[in-house]
Amino acid sequence: MRRRILLFASALAGFSILLTALLIYFAVYWDYSELMKRDIVLESEYIRAALELSGTRYLDSLAPAARRAAGPFSRITLIAADGRVLFETSAGAESMENHLSRREVEDAVRTGAGEETRFSETVGKRTYYYAVRLGDGSVLRLAKTTDSIFISLIRLIIITVIIAVFIFGLAAIISSIVTAMLVAPINRLNLDTPESNISYEELTPLLSRMKKQNDMIEAQLLEQRKKHLEFAAITDNMREGLIVLDGEAQVISCNKSARTLFGIQPRGIENQNALVIRRDEAFRLLVEKAASGASSETTIASGERHLRVFANPVLDGETVLGAVLVILDVTEQEDRERLRREFSANVSHELKTPLMAISGYAEIMAEGLVKPEDTRHFARNIYDEARRLITMVGDIITLSHLDEKTESLLMEKTDLLPLVKNILERVSGAASERGLSVTFDGEAAAVSGVPGILEEMIYNLLDNAVKYNREGGAIRVSLKKNNSPALAEGRIVFSVSDTGPGIPPAEQERIFERFYRIDKSRGKSAGGTGLGLSIVKHAAALHNAKVEVQSDGKSGSCFTVRFL
Q1: Same domain membership, residue 13 and residue 118
Q2: Single residue among 329, 348, 367 that ends a domain in this structure
Q3: Domain presence at residue 160
Q4: How far apart are alpha carbons 440 and 226 in whole angstroms?
Q5: pTM, 2 dp
C-alpha cells in the first residue's frame, strides 16, 4: 500500500510538473508571438512613416545595420505595386521572384494590411510576415522568424527539467513521509475490536462493517464449535464405534468407542489414511468398497473381541464425498451364539441318554422279555431316568430364564437366612444317608433378588456338597455380613465347604460351563445334570454377586458367593 501511494504521489507530481510546464510553454509561446506581432506592426508604422517622409533613402541608410543586427530588427522587404521586389535586407532584390502572389501582399493590396506565418524559402526558417500598403501603392513587408521563440523555450525546458528533478525528488521524500503518517494509524488498527480504533473518519464505515463481519464470524464459529462439541459428546458417548472418512479415505473423525475397540492411540490418526487403523484384508476391502460407493459389512476379530463393521458411502448424486464406518462389539452375541450351539449339542446328547434308556426299558417290557419279578426293577429304572430327564429340563428352563433375564424375574428384598435353613432341612435326609455332618453359622442377611432364583442357587451348592462328598464327611455352611468399610470382599458372604475329593486347579474355571463334569461317570451316578454350577454362576451374575471356588485338587472344596 505504501509503495502504491508513493508511486501514485510521485507520478502525480511528475504529471503535474509536465502539464504545468506545457501550459506555461504554450502561454509563453502565445504571449511572445503576440508581442512579436505587435512589435512588427509598430515597427512597420515607424518605417512607413519614415518612407513617407524620406523615400527609399531611409531604407538604403537602414539596410547595412539591419543586415548586421540580429536583435530587434526585422527582415524588411519593399514590393512594388506590380509585385517586383524593390528592396530586401536579407538578399538581393533583383534575384527574388515576383511577390504579388504572396498571401500577406495580396491582403495588403486589397485591404491595406495583411499577415501570414509560413516557411520561408529565402531564409530557410518558419517566418511571420506582416505587410502594409503605402501611399504610392507599393507594399512594405516586415518578417521575423520564430526561431528566437523556440530557442527561448529550449533554454526554459532545460531549466524546467532541472527544477522538475528537484521537485520530483522533494515530492518523493514528502510523499514517503506523508504516506508513512497516513499508513501508521491503519497499521495500528485493532481488527479484533474495530470500533475501538481512533482513526480517520473515512474508515468508520469500513470499521463498522468489519465489526459486523467479526460478530457474524464469531457467532458462526461459536455455533460451529457448539455443533462440534455436541457431535463429539454424542459420538464419544456412543457404545458403537464411529469413523468418518473423506473422499480420499482419510480419517476425519474417530470416536472414543472406535479407538477402544480397535486399540487406537487417543490422538494422531486424523487426516491419515484409514489403513493406519487396520491393514488386514477384510478391513481394506471394506474401505475400498465404501470409497467406490458401495455399502458393505464384515466381522473382524480384534484380540478377543468380535467386531461387526458396517461401511456406508456418503454420496452427492453419483459423487462419493466420503464414508461412514460403524463398529459394533458383537463379542457377547458371538459368544452367546457359540454357547447356544454348544448348549444345543450338549442338550441333545444329554437328553438322548435318558430317553434311550427309557425307550430301551419300555421296549423290553413291551416285547414281554422281562420276567415278572424284574418288572419292578425295570419300572424303577424308567422312573429314575424320567426324573433325571425332568430335572434336566427344569435346569435348562431355569438357565434359559437367567440368560434372557425376562421381566418375570422381579427383584424384591429377600432374607437369605430362612432360605438357607429351609434348604438345609431339604438336604438333611440325603446327608444323613451318607453319614455327613452339617454345621451352619449364619445371621440374618437381606439382599435384593428373586427368591426362587436365590433358592435354586443355594440348593445347587448344598446339593453338590452332599452328592460329591465322601462317605462320613462334613459340610460347613456360613452366611455372614461384612461390616468392614472396604466392601471389596462383598457386603454379604455365603459359603459352602465340603470334604470331597476336591477340584483340580486346571478344572476350576471350567466347572461352571454347562454340562461339564470332572468325572462324568461319577456325576451321572450321583444323579447330576451338569447344569447346577452353571445355574449358580448365572444366578450370581443376575444378583450382582461373584462366585469363587477354592480347592487344592486333593481334598475338599469351598464355594463362596459374595453379594456386592
Answers
A1: yes
A2: 329
A3: no
A4: 63
A5: 0.42
